[in-house]
Design a protein that fits this description.
Protein name: KAD4 kinase
Pfam families: ADK, ADK_lid
Structural class: alpha/beta
GO molecular function, one term: AMP kinase activity
Distance between the termini: 16 Å
Keywords: Kinase, Nucleotide-binding, Transferase
Strand content: 15-25%
Family: Belongs to the adenylate kinase family.
Order of helices and strands: EHEHEHEHEHEEHEH
Length: about 240
């Protein structure tokens, strides 16, 4: 169990590996993995209680916000502003947490200012990945809509091409992940996130990590977090 209060966010453009980094943070530092995406699917009747690929067992529902380890990792969806803010406000005062959303919450200055009004961040992790790497990752990404499981045809493909490993149901590619839409998405994120990154940099809490592979970036993230909160797993164990 995490024994020190930590409030942090992980920023990065689509395809930067925020999900993988946050899953490793969850395992290594005893943070419970709390998925607002799963919560939204259940609220809309999508069901499918399975966790996303790689998520810790039992970490896929919002009930963990006040149970278990007392630490929460919050994952956002297209409704991340409302849902993440509600989760942050509902977390116990002594709860360490890391906020992550697929879109990089807070990805706009307005979102960052709204978060400021309810809590003070200790740490901001920013993932900087080259444009070409992001374009390739996003264009190869396919999703199982009912569960939210994400596959990448290059390095994390399904056992049978085009179908979900667990259900056998068809995978789909988001309109936003099609090659013609990726460049516009990345430009939009960069423009919106620039003032957010500058704000956190001016406060001295921004830590940026650059690279093309999550496995090579992760040891530096682990070292940083180890200086802030005691790990429950060594880097080699993760």
């Amino acid at each position: 169990m995490a024994s020190k209060l930590l409030r942090a966010v992980v920023l990065g453009p689509p395809g930067s590996g925020k999900g993988t980094v946050c899953e490793r943070i969850s395992r290594s530092f005893g943070l419970q993995h709390l998925s607002s995406g799963q919560f939204l699917r259940e609220s809309l009747g999508g069901g499918g209680g399975e966790c996303p690929r790689g998520a810790p067992p039992g970490g896929g529902t919002t009930r963990g916000a006040t149970e278990g380890t007392g630490a929460a990792m919050v994952m956002g969806t297209v409704m991340e502003m409302r849902m993440v803010m509600e989760m942050v406000m509902g977390a116990p005062p002594d709860t360490p947490w890391v906020v992550f959303s697929p879109w990089g919450f807070p990805r706009t200055l307005g979102q960052a200012e709204a978060l400021d009004r309810i809590c003070e961040l200790d740490l901001v992790i920013s993932l900087n990945i080259p444009f070409e790497t992001l374009k390739d990752r996003l264009s190869a990404r396919w999703v199982h809509p009912a569960s939210g499981r994400v596959y990448n045809m290059d390095f994390n493909p399904p056992h049978v091409r085009g179908v979900d490993d667990l259900t056998g149901e068809p995978l789909v590619q988001s309109e936003d992940d099609r090659p013609e839409a990726v460049a516009a998405r990345l430009r939009k994120y960069k423009d919106a996130a620039k003032p957010v990154i500058e704000m956190y940099k001016s406060r001295g809490i921004l830590h940026s990590f650059s690279g093309t592979e999550t496995n090579k970036i992760w040891p530096y993230v682990y070292t940083l977090l180890s200086s802030k909160i005691p790990p429950v797993l060594s880097d080699e164990e993760n």
